[in-house]
Design a protein that fits this description.
It is a single chain. It is built from eleven helices and four strands; from the N terminus they run H-H-H-H-E-H-E-H-H-H-H-E-H-E-H. It is of the alpha/beta class. Helix 10 links the parallel strand 3 and strand 4. The radius of gyration is 17 Å and the shape is globular.
Length: 219
């Protein structure tokens, strides 16, 4: 994503965050997905704490990432103001620009959007997708804590979302890459539109450059 946008050429300050993977913490943190999301949020909070030293304009923070990194970026933006386990507060974010995000971690919702979905069991320390579906109701409140789609709120959200996907728009059909299906983007956009939350989805690579120019204006 950073290479694609050539962010340095546009005068952006860049911070690349390392975080724990779910498989590293599956017997230490519950749910395992909490670890990478909190790691990324803590890194951002630390940057904001040291903003003057680093020369960062905290009113113009943007997050980016692909796939799991995209999901984490959305989660951070949608949890602005909340306290992390470290005691730090998640900073507000002006813009999120992500590629192929998983906007939902709800297995029933994912199967509805993408019939051959099989992603997400590892995030909750479950053995496979069938077990994920079976136990879904008993852990739904936990799932919703980490599912960007469930966290969308017009009262809380002031962030502009740009969501990129390399596949053609498609919902309720089996796809070759269900983990990165365009349905994740379409459904997130639909809910944003219903709540009047600014969100742009871009599916055709030829349109990406124009969208990047729009993002620059928003920052």
């Amino acid at each position: 994503m950073i290479k694609l946008f050539k962010l340095r050429d546009y005068g952006f300050n860049i911070a690349a965050v390392s975080y724990r993977f779910t498989q590293e913490v599956k017997h230490k943190v519950y749910p395992p997905v909490k670890a990478p999301m909190q790691d990324c949020a803590n890194a951002l909070a630390l940057i904001v704490e040291k903003a003057q030293e680093l020369g960062v304009d905290t009113s113009r923070i943007s997050l980016t990432g692909g796939s799991a990194g995209a999901c984490s970026s959305l989660w951070i933006a949608l949890n602005a103001g909340k306290k992390l386990d470290s005691g730090r507060i998640i900073p507000k974010v002006k813009m999120v620009s992500v590629i192929v995000p998983q906007t939902s971690l709800d297995p029933v919702q994912m199967r509805d959007w993408i019939p051959n979905s099989k992603y997400g069991a590892h995030a909750f320390n479950l053995g496979g997708f069938n077990e994920f579906v079976k136990k879904r109701n008993s852990i739904l409140s936990t799932i919703n804590e980490y599912s960007p789609y469930a966290l969308l709120s017009p009262e809380k959200n002031k962030t502009k979302f740009y969501i990129f996907n390399k596949y053609k728009p498609c919902v309720n059909k089996k796809v070759k890459d269900p983990t990165h299906a365009s349905a994740f983007c379409i459904k997130f956009k639909e809910k944003c539109d219903d709540m009047k939350i600014p969100c742009e989805t871009i599916f055709v690579k030829d349109d990406w450059n124009a969208s990047i120019e729009n993002m620059k204006k928003n920052l």
